[in-house]
Amino acid sequence: MGFNIGLSGLRAATSDLNVTGNNIANAGTAGFKQSRAEFADVYAASVLGSGKNAQGSGVLLADVSQQFNQGNINYTQNSLDLAINGNGFFMTSNNGEISYTRAGYFGTDRDGYMVNNFGQRLQGYSADANGNLLKVQSDLQVKAGQQEPKATTSIVQSLNLNSTNVRPANAETNAAPVFDPSDPLTYNSSTSTNIYDAQGNPHVMTQYFVKNEAPANNGWVMHVLVDGVNPRTPASTQPFSYGLAFDTSGQLADPALTPLASAPADPLLDAPAITSPNGTFSLAADDWTPAEEDPANPGVKVWNGAQNSAMTFDMRSSTQYAATFGVNSISQDGYTTGQLSGLEIDDTGVIFARYTNGQSKIQGQVLLANFANVQGLTPVGKTAWVQSFESGEPVVGTPRSTTLGALQSGALEDSNVELSDQLVNLIVAQRNYQANAKTIETESAITQTIINLR
Predict the structure, then answer these.
(1) Where is 12: in which H helix or E strand?
(2) Which of 45, 126, 202, 292 is least enclosed, having the fewest CB within 10 Å?
(3) Signed CA dihedral, 83, 89, 91, 94: sign only
């Protein structure tokens, strides 16, 4: 019996050495979780039990359990490296076979799929062409192509016109209003903003404001040019003109905008009628002809061949106060063509693509999985685990939802191995091995004594 007890101790000590050695070997493995050898004593038993004076029969390896405590977060230079701060596992697919890992070495393959260093695809929610997340688990793919341009369809502007301004002296000749965009003495204030046609070509829309004495000294005339020419007829420099009215409190009156006829009268040059709510005006698709310089006639603008969409201009937040003219805010929804310039992943796993045109778009969202019994997961190597009966079903969700941890991009989770502890365990396991070997040696000496009896 003594030999068997000693042998069981040697086997247990060897297992302890193997587990400790594996921990030490993976001290630098990102996402690695250290293991612990757990032992149990052995007693011989019969149908009637072992009795109160039963002698032990040695030791056995009861379990090798992994410790899923958090590892340190180590920052890297790769924005697609990911670390989980808290509970959860990344889900990766190898041709449909799902495995779970804490190692966040991720990049993109030639098709734009986010993959780990073994080529397994990261799982998450994909996004459609408009950046809306599709709530279906799939392989995450980064679309590296250029972003298509978007024509301007909406402009929202808030400005203040100085109520103390007077009508410019040069704005009137023979009692007829005169406007010249090249002569700042014919208008009080001006402002410009970029707009875009369907091909992504930028154009400059400029508004010129001229103080009008009517109605009741609260009126203005707003002239609108695009690229210095009439929006509808590029061959003409005569602007669209609107009467702009404010009430006695400095707010837009009702009606706020009144289209003014061109002078001399030309229906092609007249400002479009107001068909929108008070304080806004709309340009139909045929009310703006995107223009460019005519190569054959310098200084002459012609249609550039781009399609235009309808456009709404909202000035409802504008005011007329006794303060310096200024644009408080202006925004428009168009942009030119853009190339992918970088990716960002926030702590909820949302993947943002940044483009050279200043735009950004959601490309997907990383998913995490957690288990009721993480100790029940089956390790399969490559710092990965697979589901087992003991682990239970995965609970899948986005980072920072329920009990799932947060993501840190540009970082990796270090191994949670504490080397000083493992080196002490190594010494203890060695001592245990030596002691059990001594048990066998002693049993051998006793046996030899019996054999030598005469």
Answers:
(1) helix 2-25
(2) 45
(3) positive
| Residues in Cβ contact with 12 at an 8 Å cutoff, skipping those fewer than 6 apart | 37, 39, 59, 60, 61, 432, 436
User: Start-end ranges of CATH 2.60.98.20 in the chain?
Assistant: 154-332
Under 8 Å between Cβ of 409 and 82 = yes
Strands 35-43 and 133-139: unpaired
Q: Which helix (H) or strand (E) holds 63?
A: strand 56-66
387 touches 394 (CB < 8 A)? yes
**Antiparallel, parallel or unpaired: β 154-162 and 311-314:** parallel
Provide the greatest CA pair distance for the chain: 148
pLDDT at site 174: 42
Query: 268: which DSSP letter?
Result: G
Q: Which residues contact 210 (CB under 8 A, 6 or more apart)?
A: 167, 168, 171, 177, 179, 186, 187, 188, 220, 221, 222, 223
Burial class (CB in 10 A: 0-12, 13-18, 19+), 346: middle
- As a whole number of angstroms, the distance between CA 320 and CA 315 comes to 12
What's the angle, vertex CA 173, arms to CA 167 and CA 176, rounded to 5?
85
DSSP track, 73-91? EEE-S-TT-EEEESB-EEE
Stretches in the chain below the pLDDT threshold 70: 1, 45-53, 171-177, 454
> Considering the domain 154-332, what is its CATH architecture?
Sandwich (2.60)
How many C-beta atoms surround the C-beta of residue 10 within 10 A?
Answer: 20
Task: Say what the pTM is.
Answer: 0.77
